[in-house]
Amino acid sequence: MLKRLSFIQIHLLLGVLLLGAMLASAGIGAFMFTPAEMARYLAEAAGWMSAPAADTLGRNVFLQLRLPRVLLAGVTGAVLGVSGTLMQGLFRNPIVEPGLAGTSAGAAFGAALVFVLGEKTTLAFTAPLGALAVPVLAFIGGFAATMLVYRVSSSFGKVNVFTLLLAGIAVNAVCTAGTGFLSYVARDPQARNITFWNLGTFTTATWRGSILVAVIFIPCFGWSLRHGKSLNALMLGETEAASIGIDPPKLILHLLILNTLMVAVDTAMVGVIAFIGLVVPHVLRMMRSADYTFLLPASALLGALFMEVIDVVARLVISPAELPIGIITAVVGAPVFLWILLREQRAGGTALYG
Amino acid sequence: MVEVRRVHYRAGGAHILRDITVQFRPRKFNVILGPNGAGKSTLLKIAAGLLKPSEGDVRYGVQTLQEVGLEPLARQRAVLSQHVELPFALTVEDVVRIGRYPHYGRTPAPRDREIVDRAMGLVEMTDKRTQAYPTLSGGEQQKVQLARVLAQIWNYDGSSDEKYLFLDEPTSNLDIHHQLHLLGVARDLLNVNCTVIAILHDLNEAFRYGDAFFILENGALAQEADNDQDISASLIERVFKVRARRVPDSDGDHGYWRFSL
Questions:
Q1: Which of A64, A258, B94, B200 qualifies as a cystine partner to B206, CB 3.0-4.6 A?
Q2: CATH number for the domain that contains residue B76
Q3: How many C-alpha atoms does A283 have within 13 Å on its Cβ side?
């Protein structure tokens, strides 16, 4: 049925679903808000209505905790969805995602360096960067890890799947060991931060952090949208893409930089969240098309939609406590993904053999 | 006209091409011949602008490749190689449309859509336009790639621009029907102001379809011929390390070659 809809129609459909999910995500949790209450808080915040003194707690929870969290979850989902799509396009392989190619682990290591060594120690090397130290180091770590995996796994214009997997495993192991070492030597509150953050969490969402992630994401996303055609051409191989007028090394470098930028900054805020980047483009390809001019916008919308739903689940399952996001994405995402693989293999699908 | 001038290519200590100067014949079927490792593919890639020579230059008309630029070059020449696999399931139509990418920005113009349709028609793949590329047979996949390169340099509207089609062993994975079909379509292009430059492995096929021949041996040009009759058995025996004999054809002027070790 979806196959008959045009790309734009599917984008609109996903957009409407996303709005619904954001509304639900804003209303549901340890504090429940009706749509009427939410509208009233927003109107009060905008200064259209005067705020009664009685309801300060609800209003503060909604405006200062819930809303930035909804924004952070949405942008995070969009970042991971788009990133999975971009990386699968650049590596010309459906198994790649920021978790596998080392981007997230590298970024996590960079951020952990700042958490543990950067502040208030004799090694306070990140002091000049101030509040930007975490995103900047996360970017450096993520970029170094991704480039290393790409360089090792690609030769003569082709990406070798086995080398890619092995290089990803090796780079991830080094980064994870580094992060593990840092949490071992860290003092307790820092160590707990790292652990929680390695599983992914939106509990620390603030307006400042959410807006930073969004501000980085929007231009990266806008820029990547211009490269849908180039990514389609790259599917044919680097030589063929070059014969269509594309400069593959330049394209790959540019897209890897902006991909790492948005993933690293996001990882610095919310930690490592697996599987979204892998599943989102895959679902969209099955749903409608492998055309990147369709996939890029659709993966932002579907990624955000998934993440809003997962965040609601995280808040509800052991309410009033919360589950880390990464646990849910893995527990739900992995079986769903295995099921997709099985189904596809029975149907004789070839999408996985790059 | 495509011209390769005093081209050398070195990689990893090996001297792959040595001082090659070639003028490919305009609106003819040019064939590059030679044994494995003679540098055919390297020469083709350099002429197509996909590889930078270590020395020397390539000219399209009066311009060097740098002067032409990547995108304008992509509107003038297309390259079809052996076998293209896709990691994802684009449809036949999606793949053919890629050939029009250098010609449009965000969305294809009506003319681009029409050319995609006609290119699919020309290779008889119109009824499979929505089928996923990876599910096609090898022969069908190559037809789709052929349609893609035809769409890229579409010249059936009587354009005066000279276009170039490079074929890098395009038939090596194809059955005889698909081989003849592909070479037939390529030959037809000569009538619409196109120049074909091909690497073919089957010498009889090459002599039957080709107009001009460039024989490479160890990275150097061993012979250039505008008629296959000018190519001697002794040259073929030396270059390809086989014994070769021309056998008269019952109905043809060409005859065909028979090889043995």
A1: B200
A2: 3.40.50.300
A3: 24
- Taking the CA of residue A7 and the nearest CA in chain B, the distance in Å comes to 13
Q: Is B141 on the interface with A (CB under 8 A)?
A: no
The two structure tokens encoding residue A132: 């930007």
Q: Does A247 touch chain B (CB under 8 A)?
A: yes
Domains of chain A: residue spans and CATH? 2-346 (1.10.3470.10)
pLDDT at A244: 96
Question: Quick check: A312 and A24 in contact, CB under 8 A?
Answer: yes
pLDDT of residue A232: 96
Give CA A83 to chain center in angstroms. 7
The predicted structure's pLDDT at residue A311: 93
Q: Strand, coil or helix: what is A33? A: coil
ipTM: 0.92
Residue-wise pLDDT tens digits, B22-35: 999 999 999 999 99
**Per-residue burial over B135-165, b = 16 or more CB atoms within 10 Å of its CB, e = otherwise:** ebeeebbbbbbbbbbbbbbbbbeeeeebbbb
pLDDT in tens, B223-260: 999 988 889 999 999 999 999 988 887 766 667 889 99
Q: What is the pTM of this model?
A: 0.90
